User: Fold this.
Amino acid sequence: MQTKALVNWQQLLSQIQEGSQKAISRCLSLVENEVVGYDPFLANLPVNERTQIIGITGPPGAGKSTLTDALIGELVAAQKRVAVLCVDPSSPFNMGALLGDRIRMSEWYSHPNVFIRSLATRGSLGGLHPKIIELTEVLKAAPFDNIIIETVGVGQSEVEIAGLADATVVVLVPEAGDEVQTMKAGLMEIADIFVVNKADRPDADTFYRNLKLMLQPAFHATAVDIPVIKTIASQKKGIPELAEAINARLKVAQTTEKKFRLLSDKAFYLLQKHRMKDINKETLLAIIQKENITNVYSFITRFY
Assistant:
């Protein structure tokens, strides 16, 4: 505990602003583990509207990690500094995670212009890490041009990424199934760009055409044209077109109303976590086991 209290947060911020990857890694760990002083540190971070956030999301097996790996290469080639947060699913039993993105993106771990951090969801249901907002703010204090957040493919609840990213890319594959049913999912309502990955597979062209039809203004209730990009991420095909579409989207200024809505979503999420701070699954499990609880509704009234 004594070591934790001796963290020099101001010095750490100076090192982060200079781009020290060691300092960035250390600070992310300190914030993630709620070390003493992290709250005032976050509250006093400089406002940064220059660094833009790209969200990569989609169902499991769509090739999000491979696509992210290829996109990093495209951004680095454009002389950009990139930070990547890869969120992997946690086991609901031991809360461990495989963090397989470390393998897929191994090419970039020693690159001076790329910072990659793998995270586990730690039981979060929205496809993101429970401290994703705070960790993103730490990265925004560093001299990165873009932050890529690759989420767990968990389906409809993954819409949380829309409240965090300046541009949200939804990755699909030709085997996504019935397009009409797919479009009903909340995941499909958040996309700024759609990617049909593994476009060399059978029926990819048909899926692409049907998706374009489903995005007509009559269905999607928006006058904004949502790009649909075909890619083969494993061969890096279509990645320049995707990077171009992302850049075009990032140049579109968000309306004041949308900015306020996104900020209110972040504030609600942070307040919700703060109010629930003293309640966690392990504590509930211990009480339920100790007291042999059978009526969960009666049990939870204790916490009202």
Remarks:
- The mean pLDDT is 80.
